[in-house]
Amino acid sequence: MKENTFHLVSLGCAKNTVDSDSMAQLLLRDGYSASEDPALADILIVNTCGFIGPSRDESIEVLNELAEEKVEGQLLIAAGCLSQRFSEYVAEKVPNIDGMLGTRRWMDIVSVVKKLRKMRNNYRPEVLYHLPENAKTVGKDEGDVLRANVFGSSAYLKIADGCRRPCAFCSIPLIKGTAVSRPLEDIVEEAEILYENGIRELILIAQDSTDYGHDLGMKDGLAILLEEIVKAVPDMDWIRIMYAYPGYVTDRLIDVMAENPQILPYLDIPLQHASPEMLKRMKRPANMDWVHKTLAKMRERIENLTIRTTFIVGYPGETEEEFQALLDFIEEIRFDRVGAFQFSFEPGTTSEPLGDPVSAAIKEERWERLMEIQQNISLQVNQSYVGKTLDILIEGYDEEQGISIGRSYRDAPEIDGMVFIEGDAEVGEIVPARITGAMAYDLTAVLVEETTA
Questions:
Q1: How far, in Å, CA of 61 to CA of 407, rounded?
Q2: Domain extents for the chain?
Q3: pLDDT tens track of the chain, all 453 residues?
Q4: pTM score, whole prediction
Q5: CATH topology for 2-130?
Q6: Closest to 310 measured CA to CA, from 273, 345, 281
Q7: Helices 221-232 and 184-196 sit at what angle, rounded to 10 degrees?
Q8: Which architecture, in CATH terms, is 148-383?
């Protein structure tokens, strides 16, 4: 074990990973060093996820694995979502925990470590709770760190945190608080820094990206932000938007996407369901006429648009007729990408009084039916690209099989498909490839240069 060395595990979504990287930056800046081996670190940090039951279970499992191997002198800190919302649960399940840092004050990691050390030096073994409920997750006290997670030639850039939407099933407002936008000039400056450091793909993330700027008094804040980013980094190859909220994809946003080729024709817009009555019970936008018109408008205005969405099956009270309406909607719209989740009962949300009456067997059966339909649609959509040439961002090379691995504009990291290309292409480059085969999620291709030689 080395003094002033930390081992940090990040769980959950990309937004969490950005916070983890920001904590690491603050620790490194204060003279700490990072270690991939927990046995070599005197500070163990797990940035937990607490969104749904399975993610909470994973967080507790990882914390206990570190706690069981912890030796005298090591500090174990649970940070992030699970700590913010279920601190007593964490303390009960992880007896060797030393400190808890809420997701709203990740920027206090250095001071928390120092307080813990002082407590231990004074023989005070109690758990340190640093969980201010009213603190904002972003702002001037972020510690002047880059609010991004860089992986390869891509980077997630956080533009806001928290959420003010009333979705009945969601615990994010309980964990993160209301929506708080980062200053536009800070985001633009960070986009410039990322570009200067070789980033080819900039991915804008927030709990609700289309709500960006609302708390700053901005109208069409996301569209304005995109315009400013394009001005600042006109040579950024790809700019990708994640997590758009139904009803807030404005005409100006559509125009900005259509008129700027750097902004990828890709939009992730979680709709959650298609039955108006079900959406009302979910406290989600229920105007399906808007959905149909907006999706049609986007496809008309934005060439080669890829649309990804997310649905929940088995929400309390979901009837077979309502579920069938969802299936009919999926077959009608023919989304490029769909993620489906079985309803997870979350205490404290406004859906809590509804309980969890849909059986696990029905949830599973409905999920399987939905995914079977969507897999057929995805396969057919993918097959329509065979013979076409797409630009592919190369992320790796499999020496054993002799193939390069990358993503097209249609593929967001971690959640969408991959493109497998015969031959060796340079990692980090964007290369043209002709699509030769299609599967439900992935494509195969050959480099254009090889086919024209």
A1: 32
A2: 2-130, 148-383, 389-452
A3: 788 999 999 998 899 999 999 999 999 999 999 999 999 999 999 999 988 888 999 999 999 999 999 999 999 999 999 999 999 999 999 989 999 998 888 999 999 999 999 998 888 788 999 987 665 555 556 668 999 999 999 999 999 999 999 999 998 888 888 999 999 999 999 999 999 999 999 999 999 999 999 999 999 999 999 999 999 999 999 999 999 998 899 999 999 999 999 999 999 999 999 999 999 999 999 999 999 999 999 999 999 999 999 999 999 999 999 999 999 999 999 999 999 999 999 989 999 999 999 999 999 999 999 999 999 999 999 999 999 999 999 999 998 899 999 999 999 999 999 999 998 999 999 999 999 999 999 999 999 974 443
A4: 0.92
A5: Rossmann fold (3.40.50)
A6: 273
A7: 40
A8: Alpha-Beta Horseshoe (3.80)
Domains 2-130 and 389-452 share a fold: no
Name the token pair of 379. Answer: 């396969």
Superfamily of domain 389-452: Nucleic acid-binding proteins (2.40.50.140)
3-state secondary structure the chain: CEEEEEEEEECCCHHHHHHHHHHHHHHHHCCCEECCCHHHEEEEEEEECCCCHHHHHHHHHHHHHHHHHCCCCCEEEEEEHHHHHCHHHHHHHCCCCCEEEEHHHHHHHHHHHHHHHHHHHCCCCCCEEECCCCCCCCCCCCCCCCCEEEECCEEEEECEECCCCCCCCCCHHHHHCCCEECCHHHHHHHHHHHHHCCCCEEEEECCCHHHCCHHHCCCCHHHHHHHHHHHHCCCCCEEEECCCCCCCCCHHHHHHHHHCCCEEEEEECCCECCCHHHHHHHCCCCCHHHHHHHHHHHHHHCCCCEEEEEEEECCCCCCHHHHHHHHHHHHHHCCCEEEEEECCCCCCCCCHHHCCCCCHHHHHHHHHHHHHHHHHHHHHHHHCCCCCEEEEEEEEEECCCCEEEEECCCCCCCCCCCEEEECCCCCCCEEEEEEEEECCCCEEEEEHHHHHC
Residue whose pair of structure tokens reads 């979680």 in the numeric block: 270
Q: How many CB atoms lie within 10 A of CB 97?
A: 25
User: What φ, ψ does residue 204 adopt, rounded to 5°?
Assistant: -85, 125
